[in-house]
Design goal:
homodimer; 449 residues; alpha/beta; nicotinate phosphoribosyltransferase; TIM Barrel; 2 domains; 7-stranded antiparallel beta sheet; 17 helices
Chain lengths: 449, 449
């Protein structure tokens, strides 16, 4: 099955085409360095998680104009023959440096660096931001849920229906799996990405039956390997009692009821009462799964107050990153033909040049980052790695489970207050003297130029 | 060019498949009525705008399983031969009733009603919500921007890069165009949907040149039909003076500079100063275009305080519907085999049965809605219309410009406080006696059942 990501290179901003027309007319095809970074962390996020690199690389590898797309450009009448010839032959052949997916990062730190001829590096901007911002948003929100659950409950993505379009739903399944979720309700994520599917029944299934008990029994007979019963359609405690009845009847048929799901009401109180009903009914192994408006705070609070919950379905607030639906992120020209560049717009000043991040660890815990020029070296581990040379991957794509394992390992290396989602001073990111010097020199050159 | 919407029917929740397995095993294929509605309006929205119907109908018409998708389902091992045979032959053949796109609507009012055999009506749920919620969110946010601009400035969608994935960017261009925007920066929206493209240059274009003036001149020579100059890369007022210089030089070559764009800083003060520089420089016809973190409030405030702005690029906050990134919307079973159904979960009680909305107008202004059962009739205009019968469209798809004209006409018929985006009492939506009676009877039947 093909990865059904929208791949048209016309998924771009018109200004990329008009700028390319200008660059090509003036022969401005020298080497450019662009970096993607987040200017400021939103107050609701103490850290972010790099994500979307594999999606981006797949997009860069397959970025080609089809004949009908070229025909449209010709017919539009605003583009030169020179531009159209360039686009007809477009193949991404640049170098890419990036934080491995799952890397924790902070404001001003480059996540991806593109080194390519100016028109090529410019042309890919829109889709690059479109992919990276969204997967970072979701991985970062999911990481917070993962830290809140703290290995006490499993998490599953339920967000497709409220994601912003289909692609968002698919990418949210991917990003949340990297950040510690165990599965998704989105069916297509299993064949496309290998993410385990999860899900059972909606309220309509119960309503369509003459009785809740009938619905439970019919469902389990038809899906003996997937037996989670939704018990809140009419009354949760009555539903729990009927789940016990159903489980007793089904046991005689060799079918085991795996879990019940609560989707509304006072979850703390109800989960305890339901646990009690199940235990007294002789089914201490039936798990309790909860959904409905969940996020990192409800997960932390419910588990912290002793709610006997084994798993959470996290939907809307995950797939829309509801409290932080966008990032102040940018993809900026850092140097052109070897000369560093910067932007001085108020509130949007950039650090010029190609950069590297060095991370220091103390006793396995992140202790501070240093941001410097790429040519510099410093104590700690350099975080950006080259992943593409002249348009070709340096290594085969990583397995999603390997990315997820690495991401979860890193999340556990966050300083404790970040793991607790507590308010805390920002993580220390220092600017090295070499980078500060370059910024000063570049600014002086711009001011005098 | 094909409409590159992700069309796989596996873009669904796993529970749709497990429920279908249950329905098919029990022969539960009777006629079901589902309705999509919004439970409660978010406090930030006094009204919503129906949108996404054409996208949904196109999706329903083309919903087919491909061989590789069936192969996946067979290989997954959890699905019965009966279910797989059903899905292999799946064609949507239901009836669809809907509010025409662009119709203003309120909480509890059905936006779309699906009448189809139970498994078919159930199966389409996930993608139906996924499409409708997002287009409604964006049309509703765009409508607020349109009302704030009040014909004093034009609006353009700039949001693709921060939209949640590519499909969201494309659908946002569509939904905002319906609600009064004049164009989009998203190139593919022009060939696919006929929405005019818009856009000029990024800061990187300026930075890549030796001087801002060179950048302006090169750009206009390469794009003489599309000459908006971005003037805030280094200093906005200096940039405005250079735009005057560029315009003077270019005039001799027969190239007219159309506009300047401001993207940062104190826009109110800067736009006035820039207007002054352009006027004194002899270019009173050069327009001022503004972007950067715009929304309905900044548009209203800037124009209300006399900022001489001719157009706004609205990006991030539009395409993410940043203040309301999701709706409390639902697609619920309203009746099965002619019997009304309801859900009683706390806070989520539904009004049973197929419903219709009657809207009263007074002097061309919306005066109140009545929600009743579909079989009832009442004063005013019924808003839901049948758009599909047995899977076939009743009429050809409407032209996007016709939809947009109708939507904008309706927005101007909103009561004045809604048009001013002011806090106000909710718009009156009454429940007719026939519907209230049905709800009581259905609840009594459930309680005794």
């Amino acid at each position: 099955m093909k990865l059904d990501i929208i791949s048209s290179p016309l998924l771009t901003d018109l200004y990329q085409l008009t700028m390319l027309q200008g660059y090509l007319d003036k022969g401005m095809t020298g080497k450019a360095v662009f970096e993607f970074f987040v200017r400021n962390l939103p107050p609701e996020r103490g850290f972010l998680v790099a994500c979307g690199l594999e999606t981006l690389l797949a997009c860069l590898e397959s970025m080609r104009f089809q004949d009908d797309e070229i025909d449209y450009l010709v017919g539009a009448g605003r583009f030169s023959g020179r531009l159209i010839d360039y686009l007809r032959g477009f193949r991404f052949s640049g170098d890419v440096y990036a934080l491995p997916e799952g890397t924790v990062f902070f404001a001003q730190e480059p996540v991806v660096r593109i080194v390519a001829p100016l028109p090529m590096a410019q042309f890919i901007e829109t889709r690059l931001i479109n992919i990276l911002q969204y997967e970072i948003l979701i991985a970062s929100k999911a990481a917070r849920c993962f830290l809140a659950a703290d290995d006490r409950a499993i998490l599953v993505d339920f967000g497709l229906r409220r994601a912003h379009g289909a692609e968002a739903g698919l990418l949210a399944a991917r990003a949340s799996y990297i950040a510690g979720f165990r599965g998704t309700s989105t069916v297509i994520a299993e064949p496309l990405l290998g993410i385990p599917g999860n899900g059972t029944m909606a309220h309509s299934f119960i309503q369509a039956h003459h009785s809740e008990l009938d619905a439970f029994i019919n469902f389990c007979r038809s899906n003996p390997g997937n037996t989670t019963l939704l018990i809140d359609t009419y009354d949760t405690l009555t539903g729990a009692a009927r789940a016990v009845t159903a489980a007793s009847l089904l046991t005689r048929e060799g079918i085991r009821v795996n879990a019940v799901r609560l989707d509304s009401g006072d979850i703390l109180t109800l989960s305890k009462a339901v646990r009690n009903i199940l235990d007294r009914g002789g089914f201490p192994k039936i798990k309790i799964f909860v959904s409905g408006n969940m996020d990192e705070f409800s997960i932390r609070d419910l588990l912290g107050r002793g709610a006997p919950i084994d798993g959470f379905g996290v939907g809307t607030k995950l797939d829309t990153s509801a409290d932080v639906p966008y990032l102040e992120c940018a993809y900026k020209l850092m140097s052109y033909e070897g000369k560093p560049r910067l932007k001085k717009s108020p509130g949007k000043v950039t650090l010029p040049g190609a950069k590297q991040i060095y991370r220091r660890m103390e006793n396995g815990i992140m202790a501070g980052d240093l941001l410097t020029i790429a040519a510099d070296s410093a104590p700690g581990t350099p975080l950006l790695k080259q992943v593409m040379a002249a348009g070709g991957r340096i290594e085969d794509p990583l397995d999603l489970n390997a990315i997820a394992a690495s991401a979860q390992h890193q999340l556990k290396a966050l300083p404790a207050h970040f793991r607790r989602l507590a308010a805390a001073p920002p993580y220390p990111v220092a600017i090295a003297p070499a980078l500060a010097d370059l910024a000063r020199e570049t600014e002086a050159a711009v001011a005098s130029g």
